[in-house]
Amino acid sequence: EKGGYDHFMMKEIYEQPRSIRDCMRGRIYPQKGLVQLGGIKDYADKLKNIDRIIIVACGTSWHAGLVGEYLIEEYARVPVEVEYASEFRYRNPIITDKDLVIAISQSGETADTMAAIELAKERGATIFGICNVVGASIPRLTHAGVYTHAGPEIGVASTKAFTAQVTILTLIAFYVAQQRGTITEAKLVEYLTELDSIPALVEQTLKANEQIKIIAERFKDSANCLFLGRGSSFPVALEGALKLKEISYIHAEGYPAAEMKHGPIALIDADMPVVFIATQNSSYEKVISNIQEVKARGGHVIAIVSEGDTTVKDMAEYVVEIPQTAEAFVPLLATIPLQLLAYHIAVMRGCNVDQPRNLAKSVTVE
Ligand code: M6R
């Protein structure tokens, strides 16, 4: 049942080339520069007239929402807010019939997310769902939606569901852009062609597993760990920290790299591993100066870099290379080494990775 792996989590990490492919199947036509999302096609016209998108979710699904915010604002030019469902539901939020609410949930049963949907629905918003479990409660509560088709996720720590959610949000960003005319067909051909190659690039990224084991061995006894990234790599940092804390019980925090100097930098000493997502994109130079700040204080730098990078390689104690890709798709690759790092550290510490203490796979109470 675990397909030859020791744990479901590892099986599910390795399934990602397939699950991301399944997510895109029948939905992208790279040569035509076309995205088709059958589940929301009845709302294609509505998308031309929305004022705002509000994403509601919890935990890892909320992190996926934050990646979605970058992508939707960049390509579809619609303002996006990402809300913890548990906060949104009790805040008397301002919602109109020109709002689109996107609820993200692997299980489709999360109580807070369901309550947020009900509230937004009462106030006249259109509600889309992004769920993994077919026929769950959330898909039944929403007006329309897109399934992630990642297959059953057994490990309590979400892995393949996260990358599937990010993939769907990428497709939704392009779909809304298509409806609103904020992207050209030529650009879509370019992006969709690149997106089509992501499953193969994830496969390539997984080859870093042995190297990540060495990093895990070095830092498995740490008491704390920081994860830093900028732009759409900031939610990846949050997700890396959540994975590590929930399965290894090491205290971990994710921050936007530039926020470090507003507080967390005080924590850095010779016992602090700091994981940077330092790929070659628009914030590369700025992340490099953040790396220097950590080094100057004796922190240990582990960096996720673009293949062929030499600058960060000279500065960091450990680097993990991921294939070059468009900035929009970096989260789909950069997440993989962080999942593996959390997994190996947890196994080395003797933790129950598939069933961490105090956690349930679906949180059906508030
Ligand atoms: O089923 P959902 O996506 O609604 O679940 C939301 C969170 O409970 C979930 O992502 C949780 O944070 C995971 N344990 C993270 O790995």
From TrEMBL:
GO terms for biological process: amino sugar biosynthetic process; carbohydrate metabolic process; fructose 6-phosphate metabolic process; protein N-linked glycosylation; UDP-N-acetylglucosamine metabolic process. The keyword Zinc-finger does not apply. Residues 43-182, 215-356 form the SIS domain. GO terms for molecular function: carbohydrate derivative binding; glutamine-fructose-6-phosphate transaminase (isomerizing) activity. The keyword Lipid biosynthesis does not apply. It comes from the Bacteria. Keywords: Aminotransferase, Cytoplasm, Glutamine amidotransferase, Repeat, Transferase. Its EC number is 2.6.1.16. It is found in: Cytoplasm. It catalyses: D-fructose 6-phosphate + L-glutamine = D-glucosamine 6-phosphate + L-glutamate. GO terms for cellular component: cytosol. Its main location: cytoplasm. The active site is at K361. Catalyzes the first step in hexosamine metabolism, converting fructose-6P into glucosamine-6P using glutamine as a nitrogen source. Homodimer. This is Glutamine--fructose-6-phosphate aminotransferase [isomerizing]. The lineage of its organism: Bacteria, Pseudomonadati, Bacteroidota, Sphingobacteriia, Sphingobacteriales. The chain holds residues 249 to 614 of 614 of the full protein.
